[in-house]
């Protein structure tokens, strides 16, 4: 059985690594924060001393880190993953990062004879824990086939979308749709509330019609309770929408609604709300309209 390295054991990475261990793969894991390591070792995983050490002791290294600069540093800094790689090994980056960065990492690793795929995920912590995240993959078909069973230990769906970079393009599309959807829902509920119509009843009336969505179902409850514990943090969604803007401008695409959604979240960050769930976009509408969407 192939030996799996795992670098990045945060909210998502730790439960994902535990699912790989549960499926019977030998795992060597590393995070510069040692706190999550106890759970990994208790489950039967081994502790790596650095990215280099993890790569030396395994056949494929999975990374789950915040953004492009973190992945670059984990791969190419001193004692990083690249120093422990050799021809025939592979890296699967499951972080949500800039697609052009994925292509750059692929180019640098392929010069060493190392396969690379970008495989960002959707679903959040609960789905990472129960192994039902959705994985969107960019890479070569034969590399995908080789690692599909490994990815399936963490996910309910694993889809090859195209060449390297296509996984993160898909993730950006997902993040655009989610952000714009939350803003649309909040704006509509604000209209209802100020017109004297209960937004919860509006939700019940329209959720099975054309305006209904998974986003509406998952986020309305948070909006009506006023409980914005994350979930998916505003600061991470700003990071994704910044990657949307950088990518879209680099290929001459205009994305006005994504830009507006990002600025709404930036305004929330300026007010100290960056650690809250992205459904807190509703709080911004409460601020600009001087009202509350919570049930009276
Ligand atoms: P997190 O901040 O909880 O975890 C990141 C981990 O990486 C931390 O434990 C940190 O110590 C470690 N780290 C950073 N740089 C490192 C380095 N150079 N070497 C070793 N370890 C390093 O983040 P998360 O919520 O687990 O998210 C990870 C990725 O998954 C992000 O790209 C995020 O956008 C994406 N994502 C998150 C969610 C979610 O709901 N949290 C959902 C889907 C996708």
Automatic annotation (TrEMBL):
Organism from which the protein derives: Bifidobacterium bohemicum DSM 22767
Name assigned to this protein:
Tartronate semialdehyde reductase
User: What is the enzyme's class at the highest EC level?
Assistant: oxidoreductase
**Pfam families in the cross-refs:** NAD_binding_11, NAD_binding_2
Q: What is its EC number?
A: 1.1.1.60
Q: Does the keyword Protein transport apply?
A: no
Q: Enumerate the UniProt keywords alphabetically.
A: NAD, Oxidoreductase
Q: According to its UniProt record, which protein family does this protein belong to?
A: Belongs to the HIBADH-related family.
Q: Which residues form the 6-phosphogluconate dehydrogenase NADP-binding domain?
A: 3-162
Q: Active site located where?
A: 171
In terms of Gene3D superfamilies, this protein maps to: N-(1-d-carboxylethyl)-l-norvaline Dehydrogenase, domain 2 (1.10.1040.10), NAD(P)-binding Rossmann-like Domain (3.40.50.720)
Does the entry feature the keyword Oxidoreductase, yes or no?
A: yes
Query: Which PANTHER family does UniProt cross-reference here?
Result: 2-HYDROXY-3-OXOPROPIONATE REDUCTASE, 3-HYDROXYISOBUTYRATE DEHYDROGENASE-LIKE 1, MITOCHONDRIAL-RELATED
What the entry lists under InterPro entries is as follows:
3-OH-isobutyrate_DH-rel_CS, 6-PGluconate_DH-like_C_sf, 6PGD_dom2, 6PGDH_NADP-bd, HIBADH-like_NADP-bd, HIBADH-related, NAD(P)-bd_dom_sf, Tartro_sem_red
Instruction: Enumerate the spans annotated as 3-hydroxyisobutyrate dehydrogenase-like NAD-binding domain.
Output: 165-285
Q: Which GO terms describe its biological process?
A: glyoxylate metabolic process; organic acid catabolic process
Query: What Gene Ontology molecular-function terms does this entry list?
Result: 2-hydroxy-3-oxopropionate reductase activity; NAD binding; NADP binding
């Amino acid at each position: 059985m192939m030996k799996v390295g795992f670098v990045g054991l945060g909210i998502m990475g730790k439960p994902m690594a535990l699912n790989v261990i549960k499926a019977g793969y030998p795992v060597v894991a590393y995070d510069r924060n040692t706190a999550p390591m106890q759970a990994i070792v208790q489950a039967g995983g081994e502790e790596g001393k650095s990215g280099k050490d993890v790569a030396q002791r395994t056949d494929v290294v999975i990374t789950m880190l915040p953004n492009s600069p973190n992945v670059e540093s984990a791969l190419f800094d001193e004692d990083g993953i690249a120093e422990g790689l050799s021809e025939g090994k592979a890296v699967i980056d499951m972080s949500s990062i800039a697609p052009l960065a994925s292509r750059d990492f692929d180019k640098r690793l392929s010069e060493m004879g190392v396969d690379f795929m970008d495989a960002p995920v959707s679903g959040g912590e609960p789905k990472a824990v129960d192994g039902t995240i959705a994985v969107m993959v960019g890479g070569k078909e034969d590399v995908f086939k080789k690692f599909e069973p490994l990815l399936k230990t963490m996910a309910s769906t694993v889809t090859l979308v195209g060449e390297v970079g296509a996984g993160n393009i898909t993730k950006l599309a997902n993040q655009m749709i989610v952000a714009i959807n939350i803003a649309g829902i909040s704006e509509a509920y604000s209209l209802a509330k100020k017109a004297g119509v209960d937004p919860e009843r509006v939700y019940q009336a329209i959720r099975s019609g054309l305006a209904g969505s998974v986003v509406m179902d998952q986020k309305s409850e948070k909006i009506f309770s006023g409980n914005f514990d994350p979930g998916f943090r505003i600061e991470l969604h700003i990071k994704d929408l910044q990657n949307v803007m950088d990518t879209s401008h680099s290929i001459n695409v205009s994305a006005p609604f994504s830009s507006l959604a990002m600025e709404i979240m930036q305004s929330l960050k300026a007010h100290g709300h960056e650690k809250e769930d992205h459904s807190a976009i509703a709080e911004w509408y409460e601020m600009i309209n001087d009202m509350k969407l919570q049930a009276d």
